[in-house]
Amino acid sequence: MSKDNIKKILVIDGQGGKLGRQLIEAIKARIKNIEITAIGTNGIATATMLKGGADYAATGENPVIVACRNADIIIGPIGIVIADSLMGEVTPKMATAVGQSNALRILIPVNKCDNIVAGVPDLSMSALISDTINKLTEFISPDE
Which CATH number does the domain housing residue 35 bear? Predict the structure, then answer.
């Protein structure tokens, strides 16, 4: 836990950043006393997530590595732990940083880019985001 009981949430996304933006908007609407850092694997993803209300933002490999060290919770598509996923935007160092972080990871099973998660039904993006927020509130009280 971060100082002053503020949880540090790291949202990582790539490509257009739409998933990340929707996550940030939903988290901000539901949970207080948090700090959201958005890291995009490219500039467009970062800019899109900033529009969703991220407190801090950066782009690229080194920001992912550094932010993973300081996050309490990491949220993003499952591809953030798979090197070369998201059309090659996730580097091996990024995937390793997410995987080795001491943070709680909430990974969203987006069945795209040749990464299919067995046993997980194909859900709409809104259903995946809703489920992600429900999982998050198991670890952070909405009024915490």
Answer: 3.40.50.720
SS3 at position 38? strand
* Cα–Cα distance, 101 to 129 (Å, whole number): 22
Name the DSSP letter for residue 126: H
Distance CA 91, CA 102 (A): 19
Tell me phi and psi for residue 103, to 5 degrees: -70, 155
pTM of the predicted structure, to 2 decimals: 0.92
What is d(CA 37, CA 130) in angstroms, rounded to the nearest whole number?
20
The SS3 assignment for 76 reads strand
Residue 144 within any structural domain of the chain: no
Q: In angstroms, rounded to a whole number, what is the distance separating the alpha carbons of residues 47 and 104? A: 25
CB 78 within 8 A of CB 90: no
Total structural domains in the chain? 1
DSSP symbol at 40: E
pLDDT digits (tens, 9 = 90+) for 37-71: 999 999 999 999 999 999 999 999 999 999 999 99
